[in-house]
Fold this sequence. Notes:
- This protein is α/β, with parallel strands linked by helices.
- The protein has helices at residues 18-27, 40-46, 62-66, 69-81, 104-123, 157-169, 180-185, 193-196, 215-229, 260-275; strands at residues 5-8, 32-35, 52-57, 88-96, 131-137, 141-143, 151-152, 174-177, 205-207, 210-212, 237-242, 290-292.
- The strands form three sheets. The chain has an eight-stranded parallel β-barrel with strand order 1-2-3-4-5-8-11-12.
- Helix 1 (18-27) links the parallel strand 1 (5-8) and strand 2 (32-35).
Amino acid sequence: MAARVGVCYGMLGNLPSPREVVELLKRHNIGKVRIFEAHHEALRALENTGIEVIVGVRNEELEKIAGNQAAANGWVKDNVGAFYPAANIKYISVGNEVLHYGNEKYVSYLVPAMRNIQTAVRNANLHKDIRVSTTHASSVLGNSYPPSQGEFRNDLKSTLRPLLNLLAENGSPFMANVYPYFSYAGNKAHISLDYALFKPSAPVVHDEGREYRNLFDAMVDALIAACERAGHPDLPLLVTESGWPSAGDDHDHEARAATVDNARVYNNNLIRHVSSNQGTPRRPGKPIHTYVFSLFNENLKPGPEIGRHFGLFYPNKNPVYPVNFTPY
């Protein structure tokens, strides 16, 4: 069951060597990992471990790849073909949250880059084993409540239409970064902390005959409903990031949610929920493969302080709090 859940291995910090990191993954029975760029030393360390890998194309690489099939072929040859199958690469994520606010300069390159990477994977005869997609923030939704009314933002539909078609044509999943923490933190008047932490035993939201006991399922189902509304009811969904910060929201003294205890409760409950194979109310019994963000507290990560406190482990490999990746 552990293989339902992976971790995101970001590298923006003073961290152990990739070989030490892989030993840490093995010691904790973590069977999947996502890396945000094609870091060759990390890919080499992952060889012959069986650990499944999502490897990322950086946003900064999209323009070159979008405009040149040879560049896409070269990227796949150098960063995938050189390591596969010894490194168990399952997915290529072409860009990260390209459709999120602030990344507008990359949007026009996204679908052409995905198409060229897909062609490169096919040219290398890897298309039966490796799927090509891209990750999305929840901000791609214009409406997310109730979950059945999930719909993509109008300004993104012209990009998402060919993107979703490309995924469907190639059997690739829709990849989403799902953070109940941020939904809760931005809407505390209407969302309870217990609902965000998987605590309620009774349903909190009733929606078209479906009952929601946690915010994670509601957020996932809103994305699934949006895909359905866009004409893709059968697109698989992969949660490429989810997590909870253990510190960093010190400005919010009245209702501080980023605590070690809340992070411990969220991530252990997330792993237990995903590993149980129960799926979501909209897709019962269909497992939602999920990657916990993040493996380490990344002390060099740019942006708000809170982003440096999502780790399960400190850079010295000590746990921030105990996490059980094999709950069953």
